[in-house]
Amino acid sequence: MKKNQLEIGSRYGRLVVSEDLGGRPKKYLCICDCGERKEVVCYQLSRGKTHSCGCLRDEELSGRVKTHGQTGTPTYKSWNEAKQRCYNQRNDKYKWYGARGIEMCAEWRGDFCTFLADMGERPEGMTLERKDVNGNYEPSNCKWATNLEQGTNKRNNRMLVIGGESMHMSEAARRYGLKVGTIWRRLGLG
User: Fold this and answer.
1) CB within 8 Å of 27: residues ≥ 6 apart
2) Confidence of residue 184 (pLDDT cuts 50, 70, 90)
3) What is the DSSP string of 154-166?
């Protein structure tokens, strides 16, 4: 048998050679065990580069890839962004999270489905908040919160006492129709 010639009926993985199609490079029509027909270049079969019509690769991938179907959802984005803040040194917020030692618990870090089971779907208009701003991302320290709640739970937030009532600066701004920056400037002026 010549170098670039295969025997009709010979098996290569899941493929059985059924017809010599000729050409340059030399091609053969093969029938896969799954029933599909595939044209294959001779050397791909003889050198073991092709074993099926593609069904073998698909089966191997489907066995390895388990997906939760949540990628791109608001809940997934919140989880991923929190991970990025904690572990990606190139993330612009890393300096306030990972660099300060803020971490995500191992159960959440390695498995979005566990995070989802613990936290539930992110409600519309809410974001992931750590109750203790110096604590980690973990079930006992996290909740879904509005931007307003987030604004009152910051390390740089100041408490003000106005008329004997204690309130966060953001609450005072909202209550008195001022911008937080205006209150900062007034505090700076005494």
Assistant:
1) 21, 39, 40, 41, 42
2) confident
3) -TT--EEEETTEE
- The distance from CA 1 to its chain's CA centroid, rounded to whole angstroms, is 53
pTM of the predicted structure, to 2 decimals: 0.53
Task: Evaluate whether 102 touches 141 at the Cβ level (below 8 Å).
Answer: no
CA 82 to chain centre: 11
Chain segment 134-159, per-residue pLDDT in tens: 899 999 999 998 876 766 666 566 67
- Amino acid residing at 56: L
The closest alpha carbon to 50, from 59, 38, 67, 35, belongs to: 38
130 φ/ψ angles, rounded to the nearest 5 degrees: -90, 125
pLDDT number for residue 160: 76
Q: Are 103 and 137 in contact (CB under 8 A)?
A: yes
Max Cα distance, the chain (Å): 101
Query: Given this model, what pLDDT does residue 185 score?
Result: 87
115 C-beta neighbours (distance < 10 Å), count: 27
